[in-house]
Amino acid sequence: MLHLDFGFLNWNVISTYVAKGFIYSVQLTLVAMVGGIVIGTLLALMRLSGKKWLVMPAAAYVNTLRSIPLVMVILWFFLLIPAGFYSAIGGQFALAHWAELSAVITFTFFEAAYYSEIMRAGIQSVPRGQVYAGYAVGMTYKQCMQLIVLPQAFRNMLPVLLTQTIILFQDTSLVYAIGAYDLFHGMDLVAKNLSRPVESYLVAAVVYFVICFSLSMLVRRLQKKIQIIR
Amino acid sequence: LPRPARFDQRGARFDRVALFSGLAAPGSGRPSHKKKQEADLGSTWDWEIFLQDTGGGRTYLDWMMSAWGWTMLVSVFALVVALVVGSLIGILRTTPSKTLVFIGDAWTELFRNIPLLVQLFIWYHVIPQMFPALQAIPGLVLAVFGLGFFTSARIAEQVRAGIMALPKGQRYAGLAMGLTLPQTYRYVLLPMAFRIVIPPITSESMNIIKNSSVTFAVQISELIFFALQSSEETSRPTTIYLAVTVLYFISAFAVNRVMAVVEKRVQVPGMIGGGK
User: pTM for the full model?
Assistant: First the structure.
């Protein structure tokens, strides 16, 4: 057995290497969650619209992204978004954080495919009679969706959406492929620069575990609460 | 150009992949990527690169096919590990024993709440350091177990749900007949439960192919690893990425078909998903 010594992990090391990556991981997760749910809801509405010219592209988009490995998608986005795009949206800062921004865009559009499947199930879980009731009192399609169906679909699916977000948080570690500076990249640098791979990777695992496990416990509690309301 | 050995590089620092992804020299930017991107966007498709020699006496096409082989090999072996371990853990979680349930729950939570990339790094860089006896194990085996155990948590969840979906009476009937608990599982519960969980296991089998892409990070010479290295060498990433993406599509589709055949062969007459 190896002797483990975590003493090297002082505040100085954490603030130099890890804090920046941790903040980026959280930002990436939050932006991709919000953006993904918005785009995913639009995709779900397209797929349930019954109009062929809306259903086909949405279904193709979702099925394509769901059958490609995330790493491949990350590499594609990193390759295909031209440098001009980054300098247009954020100038020098964006060019310096090319990989990080590319990952934000990738995860937003990639997770949208997964969130859209959840929202589709959520919309389908609302009884059809409610839509008829909405039409009967003179609501338009848009009003029906906005005021009756989507709020319920969203509430019913909240635990699943959050569980998907926990998976998203774990998946953000895959920005490793393009070298973006996330939580794991920070720990990886500690491992290499301080020559402490064993301790660093163990700490990385513990940090991810604690965050994901406590979040999934919260989701479970939320699920119980929602069940009572229904 | 002599090609560096791509296997058993454990211990050696990430040379090529690290260089490519900018990990070797933090803060120095990613010049190789920018150069490559400019080179690529100016050109159109160049499928001839697949006939080019890699410098090791084989073409890029040969290399890609061998990489596809590694992807499938890792996926299939990891799936076997995941099915065996996942079934066992899933069963443990439905037994009456509190200890066994706790072990099963702990296993599932542990492997479900740590990202696969981090788990693979633990298998590759931590476990052989902590247990020197394991240093002789090739990286491929570690990757297979890493991916397999990661997936086992998901399979365990499905198997558990499958067993719980059965009416409680079936378990009681088995026990009342005088079968022991293992016999009840073997002859009453599992034959039904396994058939119920085939659809979710199909999607897990497709996931395992997708997830095998993460093993590039521990130097397994699979498709992503090929994509990164060969596009670095040839400056034709678009062509190579497209070829690799198509291979992933084909693999996932093939697994889907195989599992559809399995599902048809074992269906239970009279159940909703069963015989027509």
Answer: 0.86
